[in-house]
Amino acid sequence: MFSKKSTSPFKTVTFRLTIRYVFLITVVSLVVFLLLYHSLALELRQRVDRDLLQKSLEIEGICLKYDGEVMKREVRRETGSHGSETLFILVFSPRHELVAASDLSTWEEIDVNRIPIDQVSMSEPMFETIDFPGHRYKIRTISRKIPDGRTLYLGFSLEDDANLIQKYKKIASICFLLMIVGGSLLGWFVANQAMSGVKRVAGSAIRIGKGELDHRVALKAEGEEIDNLAQAFNEMSDRIQTLVTKLKEATDDVAHELKSPITRIRGTVETTLLGRQGLEEYQEAAGIVIEECDNLVDMINTMLEITIAESGNAELSMQKVDMTDMVATAHELFLPIAEDKKIAFHLKTRAQPLRTMGDRGKLQRAIANILDNAMKYTPPGGEVILSIDSRYGDIVIAVVDSGIGIEEKDFSRIFDRFFRKDPSRSTSGSGLGLSLSLAIVRAHGGKIEVKSRPGKGSTFTITLPQTSPSDTPPASITKL
What we know:
Layout (H helix, E strand, L loop, with lengths): L12 H53 L2 H10 L9 E6 L5 E4 L24 E5 L8 E7 L5 E7 L1 H51 L14 H34 L1 H16 L4 H32 L4 E2 L2 E4 H18 L3 E5 L6 E4 L1 H17 L6 E9 L2 E8 L31 H11 L3 E7 L3 E9 L11 E2 L2
């Protein structure tokens, strides 16, 4: 019996899916924010470099146009738009002497002797980012030669850029936390939705375990995987219900049918004990008991075989079977029985073999049971015809007799276990032969049909799928 166990939410698949979803959101968000950070930092640095290069070109124009005090005055004025606390300008002579400079009141820590003027080439300007003594923020510098041999050295404070980066980090952190929280809630919701179908299947399993065998999982178009799971579960439930029903019917039938042979056994033993108790009487009673026990064992085995076949769990040793040869063999086996009962037994067959995929032994038994039934209920002087033919790609085996026939109202019952119509009660048999034949034929993908008229005889037709000569049979399979 199933029971619903209380589990911690941290152990559920929903929680694990949520954790994976949050982890994925975290990784993707970090990658995106880092890429944006590096992209922003690169763009800011390129913008500063462009501004420094543009400013150095302006200073170059001043140096080439003016000289002396005029040049110095113009250089000092060039920091006006940016502010002397943000930008400084130094101009060195070809002999590396400082000849002009902007307002350096906020740049007193500059040591002109340590500026690497000799490393600047004529071809390309040299950019650097340096930590400047006494300044909180880094400095971006440019060094370049101008055509007259002088060297320009400009520095720009990265305070604005640093503040912008700091704001970006703060905004990105807030957005990151919001995305984690929102992603967690969204992940939990999505995981719950995704697992709702599985939860319904689990709930159905619990209900079926408690005895509600007719309960099924409703299909709600929640996705192909969930629908397939629900459909497979419903098919499994159908088979379980069929198996349980068949087992119950078999148990009820066996319990009912066991009464007669057990009563006969008890009566025989009781009569022997109360009557003459010679060796001959004991031997006769023992023989009757053994015969009845054999009948009981055969009945129980047949019942189990029918139940297994009807539940779809019959183990079939599949191979390519020549049904033409099997029918001819059955005719040979039953011909002496027909002669003893003075019944004309005819065979109508074809020259070429007709093959099907199946279990040879079980198919033989199915045909034998129908022939045995025809022989039992056909009176002396009657006729039984066994034939085999091919029709629309199927193998058709027919058993026609001129026996007592069956009323139309009994057509649906003749394949029930232990069913024997009243006129046949005096005939020996357990009433399981036709039930077993139908179960075997259905397990092979075939069918049995019956036509009959009371007093005129009956026709039982077995239809099996025909196998083409090119089909290669497997060694053995289990019919599910």
